[in-house]
Design goal:
- Two copies of one chain form a homodimer.
- With 316 residues, the first copy, chain A, is an alpha+beta fold.
- Chain A folds into two domains: 5-134, PurM-like, N-terminal domain (60s Ribosomal Protein L30, Chain: A), CATH 3.30.1330; 150-306, PurM-like C-terminal domain (Phosphoribosyl-aminoimidazole Synthetase, Chain A, domain 2).
- Helix content of chain A is 35%, strand content 27%.
- The first copy, chain A, contains ten helices and twelve strands.
- In chain A, the strands form two sheets. Chain A has a seven-stranded mixed β-sheet with strand order 7-9-6-10-8-11-12. In chain A, strands 1-2-5-3-4 form a five-stranded mixed β-sheet.
- In chain A, a hairpin with a 6-residue loop joins strand 1 and strand 2.
- In chain A, helix 2 runs parallel beside helix 3 (94-110) and helix 4 crosses helix 5 (176-186).
- At the A-B interface, helix 1, strand 2, strand 3, strand 4 and strand 5 of A face helix 1, strand 2, strand 3, strand 4 and strand 5 of B.
């Protein structure tokens, strides 16, 4: 027997937030939030069959739908506080909803984020999460880069693309490396603390969702400059290099997307502060190139021109 | 040839807001908004084939997607300021996108609302709009009603349900009355000024989206009381009564939904202030019953018990 909208919300999603700044949460026409200063708002939609494979588990989808939005706020140096959920599901499947809510709330709690409202509708599976956060003293935009700034990325790139390939091919690899890559796609780690820590020193930032070259390209467009990437410096994980040949691993890292690492820029004079800020988060960062005068992103390999195999995700 | 995501956003949706409180709008990872005090947040999704008929024009859909959210803020007595749009479309259809954006922005401009961000994805047609506004001195919730309070509705009810019937049956009526009903469904008028004007005097409010009896039922549940509706007092438009027999018109008004009028409650001592507040908005309001001790909504007709033909929209 299928549940009604209100029963589903009550059973799975209406968890009274501990946050005293949620003046009114789920259950009325709108939520009321005490925000001192500036609010930072991001929204992202995941559509079944477009942004995720049917094989993705419901709890991973709940995690992922929130993670991609937390990642947007991380790229602003903002602190996420609240979220809303617009969930469209073909039917009221108890087990699925329970797992989805579990994945969403586990990540939300880790970041002190309260679900304050939403809309539950029937239709093709689509998940839209909106996150609202508070801005730090300085918001990290895509537009603040200058020629001469160093270009950095956190963590490692290409793992999620490798994970997608394993899921899509229903790769039987049950090794620790294969599991790690699949998890990187299914349960990405938004770099929230890192974004906040970088905000005072970085000049521009974006999260890597479409692929490094595409996303760095967005920084270049908005900052009115170009970039050079030294591809041999792009960080690749041991797991990725275990399961894929080096050329394939590099292609995933340059164009793969879905890693939700931060790509950011900073003047060379800030290098030590950047390093210290990220060390305090326990997250490695690697300098992979520089912003330059001009436009567009070009790659070098050991100082020689290098043509990447692909440029990143195209949405249409 | 189909446009890419970024071209579509630039062409149709990236209109720099005049609002100086939009510190950062479309084009970065998130929007940054200067909010003094409390933010009021609502989100609603419209799914093709579930919430709207294929026959609805794209500009009406753009209007409607925003209107239903403005209506939620109206029911809180809040002032809408900003919105985000998560739009999922099966393909990049120039003509459709232009009309959709036109409908959305026309209504947004009428209410001083800026589109500050969003996500454009490919998939089954689904529109999720989120509105963020600022709270007044007092937020109107569903929970503030007390036995003895009067129950009011603004405008007239049942028109949208009549309009849906005309659209679904492809009713050939080209009369002014038929057009008026269709417009009430396709381009509902959110009662934003009315909500703000009522907020100091009303005890509880909701917007009529699921149907009067269902929505008044939500006020009763949250307020811990019941309600009696005198059905002969429920306001029906001349247009509705021209096109439908009186029993059908009443059924639409009690259970039809989609009118986006406000249903609100207030102590009898506030009756004159309520009337003056709505008169200043140019909007009629009618007292249709009372909150009572107990639970549930019951109907009377000329003082006698009356069983309504249906209770309202069920979401699953």
């Amino acid at each position: 027997m299928s549940l009604g909208e209100f029963e589903i919300i009550a059973r799975y999603f209406d968890r009274p937030p501990a946050d005293p700044d949620v003046l009114l949460g789920i259950g009325d026409d709108a939520a009321v939030l005490a925000i001192g200063g500036s609010a930072v708002v991001a929204v992202d939609t995941l559509v079944a069959g477009v942004h995720f494979h049917d094989a993705i588990a419901a709890d991973a989808l709940g995690h992922r739908a929130l993670a991609v939005n937390l990642s947007d706020l991380a790229a602003m140096g903002a602190t996420p506080r609240w979220c809303t959920l617009a969930l469209t599901v073909p039917k009221a499947d108890d087990e699925w909803l329970e797992a989805f809510a579990r994945g969403l709330f586990a990540l939300a709690e880790r970041h002190g984020v309260s679900l304050v409202g939403g809309d539950l509708t029937r239709g093709p599976l689509t998940v839209t999460v909106q996150v609202i956060g508070t801005a730090g003293a300085r918001s990290l935009t895509r537009a603040g880069g200058h020629p001469g700034d160093d270009v950095y990325v956190t963590g490692s790139l290409g793992d999620a693309a490798g994970g997608i390939a394993l899921v899509a091919e229903r790769h039987p690899a049950a090794s620790a490396a294969a599991n790690a890559l699949r998890e990187r796609f299914c349960r990405p780690t938004p770099r929230v603390a890192e974004g906040v820590a970088l905000a005072p020193y970085a000049s521009a930032a974006i999260d890597v969702s479409d692929g490094l070259l595409a996303d760095l390209g967005h920084i270049c467009e908005r900052s009115g400059c170009g970039a050079v990437v030294d591809v041999e410096r792009v960080p690749l994980s041991a797991e990725l290099l275990t399961l894929f040949p080096p050329q394939q691993a590099l292609a995933y890292a340059l164009a793969g997307g879905d890693d939700y690492e931060l790509c950011f820029t900073a003047p060379p004079a800030q290098a030590e502060r950047i390093e210290a800020a990220l060390e305090a988060c326990g997250t490695p960062a690697r300098r992979i190139g520089q912003l330059v005068a001009g436009e567009g992103v070009v790659c070098r390999r050991d100082g020689e021109p290098f043509t990447p195999p692909s440029r990143g995700y195209t949405h249409f």
